[in-house]
Structure formats: structure tokens, C-alpha cells
Amino acid sequence: MAFAKTFKDDEDSIVMETRFRELEEWSSMQALIVIAAIDENYGVTIPEKDFRSASTVQELYELVINA
Amino acid sequence: MPEKPKFIGTGVELCGVSACVPTNCEDNSLLDPLSEKARNEFISQVGIRYRHVAPASVTSADLCLAAAEKLLSELNWNPEDIGLLIFVTQTPDHLVPGTATQLQSKLGLSNGAIALDINQGCAGYVYGLSVVTAMMQSFGIEKALLLVGDTITKMVSKEDNSIWPIFSDAGSATALRLNPDASKMTFKLGSKGSDFEAIHIPDGGYRFPIDAGSLIPKQISDGIARQRNQLSMNGQAVFTFGLSTVARSIQEVLLESGFKPADFDHVVLHQANQLLNNSIVRKTGFSQEQAPSSLFNYGNTSCATIPITLVTELGDRLRNTRLRLLLCGFGVGLSWGNVILETDKIVCPPIIRI
Q1: What is the rounded distance in angstroms from the CA atom of residue B143 to the CA atom of residue B178?
Q2: What are φ and ψ of residue B153, in 5° steps?
Q3: ipTM of this model?
């Protein structure tokens, strides 16, 4: 999935329950990369406040399908 | 909803553009507090390696003055013939008065010239062009100078790893004249003041004057410390603003003007972040080849990024061919501005360093 592919080292271990902010690779830069990847792959720009409120991949997924 | 404002500038020709940066340069690959991995990731994703940092003795006005003197001499224009000077900046020489009148005097413009400051940032080049074009048209002013520049590094905390590696200093000058045969300029500007805090300096204006507390550095988070009289930026909010509002504004100006991305030689975006610009370019149907970038060598120079990119990346083409361009600035305000214009073998000296 588009989200996991943005991670170089952690791609294979990412599942819906992953708390992505706790990953070693997570950074403010990674946040922008993820926002851009979601925008490119699903045509959804997640508002900044909503993005900050999401902590698992499942929550991001819900933001995308409910957009 | 009322129709969003659009302005068509007619009979005004863009004759030349020049730009100037401070000689002093910093290299993000040597930026101390960041890890090597973080530095490399920053340079490859955001795209910024070198930044020009003005010393205390050099102001935005000095950078613009050097750019203007060079441009006027290459154009062979007599300063006394210039009836309008607009200076776009957020880093004026003094809080009072505005800086434009001093530039009028230093450049040798007559006392009959209009000289005015505009407080604008990343969209400032397009806003400045719109004001100059509209005033030239309505007042019948034959020749005008648009000076656009900032020394943003002077308002940023060096202890703020979230923005110190981004900002850089530069000034620019653009010369315009009335010409009934000039091709039209199509402007589309917008504002979203509800999000003004995404890029702002909390203290130091008259809402929150500076007091002793303003000057105490505060640790915001790991690697981010700044004073309340220094620039604060919510990068994530600006990023999503670019992806949504700015991309949509480009789509709107295309739709309303009847042009398609392929009709343009280039789209010149405000230079803030390469990852963001790549996304905007893709979303709006342009090719990456149409979108020059000056980020690697010049960083984010606020209102000056568009003229810096014109001079450093498109100089040869501007001098030798006719070009149709879409220029798009966006950021502080929040605000954004698009203009579609054509240039025809304009004067464009190589970048100046002082």
C-alpha cells in the first residue's frame, strides 16, 4: 500500500494497527512524504489537524475513505 | 459565493528582471545539530543545500538596490523616467517609514515618482506585479520598477531546526513599461487569513508589542527553540495548503484563461519545498521539465524565489526567446497569486552577489 511504501526500512512490518508515529523512521519530514503519497495515490489531501489526530494506519485509512 | 477576483493587465510589457544574493553562503550538508541521515534526507526531499545569509550590514533594500542598478544600466533607462517604484518586503530597513522612498532617492528617481512599500511574502512577486500593472494602466505611468526582496534569515532562530535550513536571503528588480502591443497578463489572487498563524511572528507588532518575555528563547520541541519575536511556521499546514488550495488556484486560472499546461513554456512556482512543488506540478498536469527549481542553490528566499528562479534557471531562454509563463506564489497570509504572462527577449543579467 502507498503508506507503507513511503518507509524505506519498515515497509514490510506495517499493518493497519501500526502506530506509525512510534516507528523509528517517523519524522516531520516523513509526515510530509506520507501526506504527499496519500494525495498522489488517492486524490485526498488530508487536512493538517485531522492528520495530527491520527495515530494508526487504520485511522489514516478512515480519513481517506471518509473524505 | 461571489466570483473570485481576476484581473487582466493590458498594455504593460515586462522588459527585464535581475536578482542579487549575499555572498555569504551556508551549506546544509554541514548543518551541525542534525544527524547525517536527517541532513541527507532534508537535502534530497526538500531540495535545499545552499542558503545565502546576509550579514548584519546588508538589508533587503541593499540587495534590491544592487539588482535595480544593474538592471537599469543594462536597459539603458534613465532613472528620472521612472514614475513608480513598488518595494515588496517583510524585512524593511525601518518600521517607520517605509523603505520605498529611500530606494527612490538612492536610485535617482525624481521627486514626482510614486514610491510605496507592500508587506507581502511568498506570493509577493505576483502581488507586486499586479499592483504595478494596475497602477501603470490606470495612472498612465510609462515606466516602473518592482523591487521584491527579503532577508528572512534575520527573523529566524538558528536554534529552530524546523525552519533555519530552509530560508535564504535575496533581492530582485523587475522593469516594466507601457506598450500598447504588449501581450496581456492574467492575474488570479486569493487570501485565507483564517490560517494566518501557520506562518507568523507572534510578538513585535502593535497587537503584541515586544516585552522582556518576547526575547526569552523557548524550547518548543526537540531541536526547535525560538523567541516570540522570531518566525514560527507550521510546515505541515503550509504543505497541505499548497497541495489543496494552491493546486486548485492553478487549475482555476488555467480553466478561466483557456490555456492548457502544454501551452506554457514554463510554470514557475514559489520555491519552498521540492516535494511539495513536485506534487503541485503533477496535480495540475504540468511536466516536471516545465517547472524549473532553484531550491538546491538558493533555498527559500520568500518573495524573491520567483525572480531568482527566472534569473538563475531561465536566464538564457528569457534573453533569447519568447516565452509564455505561469508564475505562482503562495504562503504567508495565507495568500496566493497566479499570473499568466509572456516575455519577449527581455534583459536578464546573470545573478549578482554583494
Answers
A1: 7
A2: -60, -25
A3: 0.89
Burial per residue of B43-69, b for 16 or more beta-carbon CB atoms within 10 angstroms, e otherwise:
bebbbbbbbbbbeeebbbbbbbbbbbb
φ/ψ (deg, to 5) at B339: -140, 135
Q: What is the mean pLDDT of each run of 10 residues along chain A (67 residues)?
A: 73 83 86 92 91 91 88
User: What is the reported pLDDT for A26?
Assistant: 87
Q: Please list every residue in chain B whose beta carbon sits closer than 8 Å to the beta carbon of residue A54.
A: none
Q: Select from B188, B185, B149, B148 the least CA-distant residue to B169.
A: B149
The CA distance from B161 to B165, in Å, is 7
Q: Say what the pLDDT of residue B5 is.
A: 66
Nearest CA in chain A to B278: A36
In DSSP terms, which residues pair with B218 in a beta bridge?
Answer: B226
pLDDT value of position B339 = 98
Other Cβ atoms within 10 Å of B207 Cβ, number: 7
* Residue in A29, A33, A49 to test binding to B, most B beta-carbons within 10 Å: A29
Q: Distances from the Cα of A38 to the Cαs of A26, A47, B283, in angstroms?
A: 16, 12, 12
CB contact under 8 A, A39 and B276: no
Q: Check residue B103 and report its DSSP letter.
A: H
Residues of chain B with pLDDT below 70 are 1-5
